[in-house]
């Protein structure tokens, strides 16, 4: 999902980097507040959102002072934009006030799961937040192959002790692949992609446990992580590890098996959706 004169095309990347260096310290508290807001379920526009992984920082999304055509400026930096939104505020004196204004006016954009990267800039009391999703890079294998890659990345993560928010986890045993959970994960990823939604509940209100049982998986415990917008299994797992709730699910020693899958629909907002189903037989 856009060309500047040649002189500007050469100058804008360096200007954007200067903006990043000059304004990153002042803007950092707002970025932290945005990611904290996204990390918890929120009520927005009459709907409840899912907890989302933190947005990754990309200096190419930090707008230089004076840039008005922000879309062309992003293109000039070489950012492979698939979709993006720019939120502009004028007046807030600090990050707390800016966050309050963003929540009031732009909660739906902040909580849109398709956006996975961000740049925040500040000039005085003027703030600009660019949320973006890059183009998918490279060719993915089928859902089983990518599910196995996700399993490998999860097991590599489980092989190291780590802190998930305020909770400490020892290294956990590797998970085995479960074909039933894989099929259940593929069905949910496909439903989200084709239905253009992002939720642990399907359109019929079924929970992950409901779907696993209907799919023929008998287990004492089932868990689920979902993601949208990331173009590789490695990126998905990295995002989950940066999110306390997703990280805790991934590191839980109670689980013994996993099935995972992705689905793509170019007509959907996020383009690609991922599901990982954790089980304890």
UniProtKB/TrEMBL annotation:
Pfam families registered for this protein in UniProt: CAP
Keyword Signal: yes
Record's signal peptide: 1-26
Annotated SCP domain residues: 151-278
Keywords: Signal
CDD domains per the UniProt record, alphabetical: CAP_bacterial (cd05379)
Protein name, UniProt field: Uncharacterized conserved protein YkwD, contains CAP (CSP/antigen 5/PR1) domain
Lineage: Bacteria, Pseudomonadati, Pseudomonadota, Gammaproteobacteria, Pseudomonadales
């Amino acid at each position: 999902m856009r060309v500047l004169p040649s002189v500007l095309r050469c100058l804008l990347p360096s200007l954007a980097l200067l903006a990043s260096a000059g304004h990153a310290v002042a803007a950092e508290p707002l970025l932290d507040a945005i990611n904290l807001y996204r990390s918890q379920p929120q009520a927005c526009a009459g709907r409840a959102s899912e907890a989302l992984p933190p947005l990754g920082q990309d200096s190419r999304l930090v707008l230089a002072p004076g840039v008005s055509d922000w879309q062309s400026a992003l293109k000039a930096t070489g950012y492979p934009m698939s979709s993006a939104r720019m939120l502009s505020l004028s007046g807030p004196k600090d990050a707390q006030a800016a966050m309050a204004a963003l929540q009031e006016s732009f909660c739906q954009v902040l909580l849109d799961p398709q956006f996975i990267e961000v740049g925040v800039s500040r000039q005085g009391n003027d703030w600009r937040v660019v949320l973006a999703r890059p183009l998918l890079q490279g060719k993915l294998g089928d859902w089983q192959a990518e599910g196995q890659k996700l399993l490998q990345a999860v097991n590599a993560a489980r092989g190291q002790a780590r802190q998930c928010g305020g909770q400490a986890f020892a290294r956990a045993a590797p998970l085995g692949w479960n074909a039933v959970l894989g099929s259940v994960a593929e069905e949910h990823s496909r439903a989200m992609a084709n239905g253009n939604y992002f939720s642990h509940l399907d359109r019929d209100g079924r929970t992950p446990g409901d779907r696993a049982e209907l799919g023929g998986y008998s287990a004492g415990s089932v868990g689920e992580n979902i993601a949208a917008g990331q173009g590789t299994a490695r990126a998905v797992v990295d995002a989950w590890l940066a999110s306390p709730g997703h990280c805790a699910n991934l590191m839980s020693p109670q689980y013994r098996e996993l099935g995972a899958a992705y689905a793509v629909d170019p007509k959907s907002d996020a383009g690609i959706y991922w599901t990982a189903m954790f089980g304890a037989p």
